[in-house]
């Protein structure tokens, strides 16, 4: 019964995709100019050519390196600060308005400054990405640490727990759900940081491939680059999801248990 | 140490000194800027090895007393003593069990029971040996690898109980631990908890809003009323220490005492009608 619905859903999905692609293919050159919307077959051909020549892998690797590097750097620092401020109430109170001010600043607006500071190399994109990711992970970690159940802490205290015990046995594990929410939110933003950095100044990476194709009025190339970006985003998301399940095995069982309302 | 004497020990002839003593205790909270008197003028002695039940309508400050005995906060009036000295924050001699079990959802049963042992700094092998024992004691055998959200209400209680016993506090504070269980399961847990506490010679303060439960479990029973909460009456439960909780309903003494205490409780309910 359940697998049957699943098959049906997948059938519909494939049908929907086919419908979109075929309409696009047919519309191209008839309803809209091929110059602007290209056509799926041409895009696939271009993408395949890039795969065969390794172009997509070369540029993809650069973008991936920047996204992952920035993601790791930003999330590690974000977690540390989140835990620290979550525990140090006074510091958090003092810094709050400044953090919020900086948080509301669109981080990509910092890109020109970062170019000045770090040049147009890979490191500039890593720092830009890290800045974006930092805030998302920091705020979530902070909230998670603050949201720790006071009762659970009290119960551990009665058992004779020290500050360290409380931190490692209750605070951090219970904040991990929040941390992962932050991490999952950060994945698309890490790609944004990496690619915006490339759009602004670079000669490598998928963002460069995109900008370069657009610069040559090559719509097909633009779409092919976008597909490369989409595929990368998909795999990054899937990786974090997988890590999430590995890190929190108690949640996996949540959907399989009996429901009680 | 002997059990609390079966025959009447009233407030006045306390030959032994109490383990926990509340002396004219009051507690005021500030709720939304308004002072709120939770309890007032409480004088209460808890003796070593006895099970003292606190019964009364919800919101009459029974839990507040437990919190003060645990040192989670201090009274605003009067003093709370434990073994003759004033209770300090986080009284290490007590274990706390509440209605929601506060198990850590990211640890399986074994991990949850192990926490107090880890805090004590026992070795890995010692911990797993003790945990194994405790799971047998509370009847959790075979559930070691389950996470709390996979357990039934009763199983979660057993797990919380095992965790409590793991660090072996001499006094157990129980705040309506079985309130969320169904009637039959609740009776089973009552039997087991009374058995266990008597076997291990634990001193217990047991808060409940269920008069039947208070009488069934308690050696003595303190009836609370009103807001601010105060003790209306403290009685010795005239039932054998090795009473059979399953068959209490037929016991005339049980029926008489519950009827008696009900009359004490009734006015405070009438007031709110």
UniProtKB/TrEMBL annotation, chain B:
InterPro entries: AAA+_ATPase, ABC_transporter-like_ATP-bd, ABC_transporter_ATP-bind, P-loop_NTPase. Residues 20-247 form the ABC transporter domain. GO terms for molecular function: ATP binding; ATP hydrolysis activity. SUPFAM superfamilies: P-loop containing nucleoside triphosphate hydrolases. Pfam families: ABC_tran. PROSITE patterns: ABC_TRANSPORTER_2. Keywords: ATP-binding, Nucleotide-binding, Transport. Belongs to the ABC transporter superfamily. This is ABC transporter ATP-binding protein.
